[in-house]
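Hey, weird one. I pasted the Lipopolysaccharide export system permease protein sequence into the form twice and got a warning about non-standard characters only the second time. First submission, copied straight from the form history:
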Amino acid sequence: MLKKLDKLIIRAFIGPFVATFFITLLVLVLQFFWLYIDDFVGKGLSAGVILEFIWYQSAALVPLALPLAVLLSSLMTFGNLGETYELVAIKSAGISLLRFMQPLLWVVLLICGVAFLFGNYIIPVANLRSRTLLADIVYAKPSFDIREGVFYDKITGFAIKIGKKEANDSIIRDIIIYEQNSVHQDNFIIAKDGVMRVSDNKRYLEFNLRNGWRYQEKGNSGRENTDFIRLGFKEYNKQFDLSSFQFQRSADSVNKNNQRMLSMRQLDVAIDSLRKDAFSFSDEVQRDVLPSIEFVRFLDSPWKKYPTASKARSLDALIADSLKQTIWLRSQGLAQSLKSNNEMIAGQYEEKQKDLWKHQIEWHRKISLSLACLVLFLIGAPLGSIIRKGGLGSPLVISVVFFMVFYFLGTTGEKFAKAGTMSPFFGMWLSTFVLVPVGLFLTAKAINDSQLFNKEFYYRGWQKLQVYLRRKKEKRGATA
């Protein structure tokens, strides 16, 4: 049964949590757009496509925004209560800090559960849609734009140069159109003026040219006796296909096998299959490599019982001089073949192992990111009660510092896990292993009303140290 004190702390936490969550999510989305801004500009994308991408990308960034929102909101909540001396009143009433944190602990555990379900069922779909849409946007051609005095070669097979465009961009002058890699179509067109417009369905670019020449070469391009035709015209109509400039959507199935697009159940199946493939490499070596080594068949043969072999001091003494060169060449070829096969199999095994590590990393990520909310709460709540500062000043700075440590440790651990330097388990839980002791230390300090971040405490300690050093110096002078 919730008491009034529990309702008080929950209400004080919910408001800052919701606000900081959406602010954090907005910052993360803007940071993502800042990295890919060059791929979005000039593509002629509709507002619907951009909003759809923002929607999917926002969903994909939720697991990263939740821990930071929990850290900042818990720090602000306990900092505000400490600044208004409500924490002092609560402790004076005999209520411990752990009892006061208990309702928020249950709320954060609920957030962890929601984050896990969101990351397991919604994030794979959001990652799939956003990754596919981002690839389509990145590989889409820029919107059609011909500049004055510059050859434009984005239309496949053509290079177009316009000397001057009027204010409305439809009337053009001094036009040159060069057709590349063609044998049976117009090769070269020059016109003094004309009208340029895009068809209503934006599928074709139409040039209505006037007062110009068309140059054409016919015949086999590999021969010298080709026909060169020059034809003057008063009006000439030329169309260019612009279908390649239109934004085209790919099917989601293109990226469906990526480990980030899988749930934990699907990851378990994939990890089990990859492990079986890795274990099958020893059988593959015995099946494909060992039979090519001829002496393997004679390893168990009793060659020492033969008189000639027992008297020989080395294998070289058993080989006739006429056969040594032939045996040497065959041995060298066999060794080279074995080396190539071993390198190929080792490369395949390494790729399978890296793929296995990536799937295991993603499996641990779904749990570690959801529990990161609890870890950062254990840091934010006691830290806010120690600092006793509310608002967005000190809490924001401290939250950013701890979140950077959390993010840096997580990224470093993931990089080590992908390289095989560290196991996927330790790599993905590295930030948790480091920050949990910090949270427990801060909680212990907050329970004992520590002066850890009190300037006056350190100032008084510095003064006491100065007095001690001064007295010690005076005592030495008196003794001398």
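That's the output from the first submission. The warning seems to come from a hidden character in my clipboard, not from the data itself. The longest strand covers residues 204-218.
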